[in-house]
Design brief:
heterodimer; A: 179 residues; mainly alpha; Four Helix Bundle (Hemerythrin (Met), subunit A); 6 helices; globular; B: 467 residues; 19 helices; 67% helix
Chain lengths: 179, 467
């Protein structure tokens, strides 16, 4: 009962947020609506019993990507005026991207459906995957070791790189601060 | 997530007289969590403001609030309690009550301490005109304070207040706390942008840049604890810090290793920045930005931001205590509390956590009224050039310590079977966990001194150029 209600709320958040983000003309509002959509998706992960994934969704997509997008929005021109023109070329490109993305999603959904059909009745979980941290850790350190390590290396390089870039704007090393 | 915690389940079962439905569960959640939080945290946050004013006054050799006592609230209480009597009778009874000797002296003390100030402040805040500037983005502007408050309150869901008192038991508790407090970032950005004012916009940008920068050391510090404890469940982390005997203090994470002590310090400093507390309050710099992202806010909405700040201070205190200082466990032995019946155990554990939180709270205030504000570049430098490298080194050190400790035995910690108990070392091992890193650090410093004739210039430069 309450689960159904919450599920509907999360789904509506995700869908309404996505539609709003696509249609609203104010860039800042569009980014915030995108955040709503991402939050709804985190809620949907909870219904798949993927608590870890839901938290990571919030950390990465809302705490990271959304904030980045908001930053970019604030730095872009005419954000307070906030009416973006729609050129036919952009509309066409966006439409094409949307159609392609939907095709991929529908394809995946159908694949998942046939996989679900193959399973015994009553097993409603879309894909039997224990969402606990140990399984995730095992997967990251096992099957997905190389991508995980590559991502970690990339992030560390970025981190160290940012520090180095900051260092470069210092006064020369010989000039020691008095005091 | 195994339900809403012991107390809620019990109450819901009692309400429903059997298997609780969602209505019973909702009522139980409201009764056990939401109402107490509203009744407790809001006054605590309000009292925090009084405490802050008194401490500020003491540090600056002033008196601080010294007139508003508890007379007013008391009179109001009498009016409500004796609503069936005519007003003159009410006042006579009230006067008689106030003339009782102990009551009179207590009221006098409350006036000296300015205890009633927060009531006056609250009424003043509620009575202020609620302004939405002409250039503001209505919805975004109105929504921002609520989101900020939500982001500050939600992490409390996973903080264990006692053995049976966790709102949300989940194995990803630490991650959850970090995740939902990220909402504050979006809220501040909304406040800064939605106000339609350049001060707010600049303040919002500063706030968000600072918050994002300091989320990295906070995440790494929490990550270090998670690495050490082998779990993200905050309740299990508390359980792992259990040490039998009178010296239960020795089980706390902060004394396990110098690296964990470092992480505790980093967590506290970064937490200070997350609350936008001085010396990291350049996003709310009243002298430069006319107070930053909340410039345009007034009345209740401004109050919500203030409340969010104080709530976040409490949260940082609670998380610091939970991750590093044994959570709700007492420093002088734990067995005598665990054996008590629930109705005694819960308040005692809660009070112990409360004392730890208030201590952190007080230190934050002490720092605020002692240190001057950092510049933007200093804030960023502290995070990226000091705290983050310290975190990385500490995490590496923790990993090495864990490897060196090798055998961990599967035991049970505190009634809950912990996923992996902390390394069960001989006392020599504990000593080594401290001695070896400290010796290596000392060697590094000495070598640097020999080589450069001083501490490494990088270390000096880190503290901010000429200062």
């Amino acid at each position: 009962m309450i689960e159904t209600f919450l599920f509907v709320v999360s789904s509506l958040l995700a869908i309404a947020g996505a539609i709003g983000a696509a249609l609203v003309r104010n860039l800042f509002h569009a980014s915030l609506l995108l955040g709503l959509c991402l939050l709804g998706i985190a809620g949907l992960y909870l219904f798949l019993e993927q608590h870890w994934l839901a938290c990571v969704q919030v950390v990465v997509y809302i705490g990271g990507i959304l904030v980045l997008i908001l930053f970019a929005t604030l730095f872009s021109a005419d954000v307070m005026g906030a009416v973006q023109r729609r050129s036919p070329a952009l509309l066409a490109a966006g439409g094409l991207a949307a159609v392609l993305a939907s095709a991929v999603v529908v394809r995946l959904a159908l694949a998942g459906r046939s996989a679900a059909d193959a399973r015994p009745a009553g097993d409603m979980r879309p894909d039997a995957f224990e969402g606990d941290t140990f399984t995730v850790g095992d997967l990251l350190m096992g099957d997905w070791f190389v991508p995980f390590f590559a991502a970690g290396l990339l992030l560390t390089v970025a981190l160290v790189g940012s520090v180095v870039i900051v260092q470069r704007f210092r006064r020369p090393a010989g000039e020691v601060a008095d005091a | 997530m195994n339900g809403f915690g012991y107390a809620v389940d019990a109450l819901a079962a009692w309400l429903a007289g059997g298997e609780p439905g969602w209505i019973a569960l909702t009522i139980a959640v409201l009764a056990v969590w939401v109402v107490p939080i509203l009744l407790l945290v809001f006054p605590i946050a309000a009292l925090g403001q009084i405490l802050e004013r008194k401490i500020a006054a003491a540090i600056q050799r002033r008196v601080g609030p010294s007139s508003a006592g508890l007379d007013g609230p008391l009179r109001f209480g009498f009016r409500v309690l004796l609503f069936f009597l005519p007003r003159a009778r009410q006042d006579r009874i009230f006067a008689a009550f106030c003339n009782l000797r102990p009551v009179r002296s207590l009221l006098l003390v409350s006036r000296r301490l300015g205890l009633g100030q927060f009531v006056a402040d609250g009424i003043k805040m509620l009575g202020k005109e609620d302004i939405v500037p002409t250039g503001a983005d209505g919805i975004v502007f109105r929504l921002a304070p609520y989101l900020a408050l939500a982001g500050a309150f939600l992490p409390f869901c996973v903080v264990p207040f006692g053995q049976h008192l966790v709102m949300l038991e989940t194995e990803v508790a630490a991650l959850f706390a970090i995740a939902v407090s990220g909402i504050v970032v979006v809220a501040l950005k909304m406040a800064g942008w939605g106000s339609g004012s350049k001060w707010s916009l600049l303040g919002g940008m500063r706030a968000v840049a600072q918050l994002v920068s300091y989320e990295v050391p906070i995440g790494l510090a929490v990550g270090g604890v998670v690495l050490w404890c082998g779990t993200m469940d905050l309740h299990a982390i508390v359980g792992q810090q259990y040490e039998p005997g009178v010296f239960s203090l020795l089980g706390w994470n902060v004394v396990q290793s110098p690296f964990l002590a470092t992480l505790a310090a980093v967590f506290f400093i970064a937490g200070l920045a997350e609350c936008q507390r001085s010396p990291f309050d350049m996003a709310e710099a009243e002298s430069e930005l006319v107070s930053g992202f909340n410039t345009e806010y007034s009345g209740l909405r401004w109050g919500l931001f203030a409340m969010a700040e104080y709530t976040e201070m409490l949260l940082i205190g609670a998380l610091l205590a939970t991750l590093f200082f044994g959570g709700y466990q007492s420093p002088i032995g734990e067995e005598w509390i665990v054996g008590l019946p629930v109705w005694l155990e819960v308040p005692i554990h809660g009070a112990i956590l409360g004392v730890k939180v208030v201590t952190v709270f007080l230190v934050m205030m002490w720092i605020r009224w002692t240190l001057p504000r950092f510049r933007v570049d200093q804030v960023m430098r502290l995070s990226w050039l000091v705290l983050v490298p310290m975190c990385l080194v500490s995490m590496f050190g923790l990993a090495v310590t864990l490897l060196a400790a090798g055998g961990t035995h599967a035991g049970e910690a505190f009634g809950r079977v912990a996923s992996r108990p902390r390394p069960d070392l001989h006392w020599l091992g504990h000593l080594a966990a401290w001695a070896v890193p400290v010796a290596i650090g000392a060697c590094l410093v000495v070598m640097a001194k020999k080589k450069h004739g001083q501490v490494h210039p990088a270390l000096q430069r880190l503290t901010g150029g000429r200062s």
